[in-house]
């Protein structure tokens, strides 16, 4: 195989990893950068590849929830109070990361080159998840699972999401700002932030999915605007390959994640984060 073919196969592999890890609280960025380093995948100093292919995963959510999104858009345009409140909450949760991210993106990207940062964020994030899951309201399975609701029920999704208050949405928004630190996990930070604000686990997960849409779209457009001209032809092709792979792998994972959180806690992911952080620390030290 040629060097270019091997390079694109590496991009394909990382795209699959992105789709698998984007919607579980284990940090897709950490996996992309760590595994990319281990397989000697060069994405350039700007790390555009890692940012842009995440939007491929987000498009999978757009496709899965397309009917709900159309309902949200049309309801907001018609002035439906419920849909307008949901849209308001998404905007409130989106704005903190949009403003702070635009101001600090260069400093945040500098952290991508220091893998020791991932050790601390992975382990601390795992410990925080364990602490939150020990709270009485999350210690048992969610009531949705006991009532036999399915994760794909659009009616159940709409009913749960419309109960979120603007204050809870704001907490989730600031939690998303914390997720700009590599290894934190955007989905993990927003889900745990929502749970700390009093939102049930499944609803917090669904809100995190919807919030990812404007957030990752903005990040993708901004990053391509800032760094697109400096990309080589090989890097541009790798982004396309990784983007498509992320879309299709995420397409099969999203519903599984919702089914999982309907009846189980995030403890397995917390322990996984701690174990991965420990392995990474040993690898860096040796």
From TrEMBL:
Its main location: membrane. Keywords: Antibiotic resistance, Cell membrane, Cell shape, Cell wall biogenesis/degradation, Hydrolase, Membrane, Peptidoglycan synthesis, Transmembrane, Transmembrane helix. One of its GO terms (molecular function) is undecaprenyl-diphosphatase activity. It is a multi-pass membrane protein. It holds the Pfam family BacA. It is found in: Cell membrane. The keyword Zinc does not apply. One of its GO terms (biological process) is cell wall organization. Coiled coil: none annotated. Bacitracin is thought to be involved in the inhibition of peptidoglycan synthesis by sequestering undecaprenyl diphosphate, thereby reducing the pool of lipid carrier available. Belongs to the UppP family. This is Undecaprenyl-diphosphatase. It comes from Alcaligenes pakistanensis.
């Amino acid at each position: 195989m040629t060097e270019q073919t091997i390079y694109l196969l590496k991009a394909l592999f990382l795209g699959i990893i992105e789709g698998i890890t984007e919607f579980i609280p284990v940090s897709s960025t950490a996996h992309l950068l760590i595994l990319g380093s281990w397989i000697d995948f060069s994405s350039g100093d700007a790390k555009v590849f890692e940012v842009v292919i995440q939007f491929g995963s987000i498009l999978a959510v757009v496709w899965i929830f397309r009917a709900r999104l159309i309902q949200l858009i049309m309801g907001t345009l018609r002035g439906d109070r419920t849909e307008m409140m949901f849209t308001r909450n998404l905007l409130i949760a989106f704005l903190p990361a949009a403003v702070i991210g635009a101001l600090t993106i260069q400093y945040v990207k500098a952290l991508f080159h220091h893998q020791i940062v991932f050790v601390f964020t992975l382990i601390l994030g795992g410990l925080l998840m364990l602490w939150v899951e020990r709270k009485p309201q999350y210690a048992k399975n969610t009531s949705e699972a006991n009532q036999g609701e399915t994760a794909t029920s659009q009616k159940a999704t709409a009913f749960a999401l419309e109960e979120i208050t603007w204050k809870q949405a704001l907490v989730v928004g600031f939690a998303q700002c914390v997720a700009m630190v590599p290894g934190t996990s955007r989905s993990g930070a927003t889900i745990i932030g929502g749970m700390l604000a009093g939102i049930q686990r499944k609803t917090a997960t669904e809100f995190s999915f919807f919030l990812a849409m404007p957030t990752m779209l903005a990040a993708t457009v901004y990053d391509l605007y800032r760094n697109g001209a400096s990309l080589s032809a090989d890097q541009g092709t790798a982004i396309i390959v990784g983007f498509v792979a992320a879309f299709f792998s995420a397409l099969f994972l999203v519903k599984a994640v919702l089914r999982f959180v309907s009846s189980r806690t995030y403890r397995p992911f917390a322990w996984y984060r701690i174990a991965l952080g420990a392995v990474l620390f040993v690898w860096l030290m040796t």
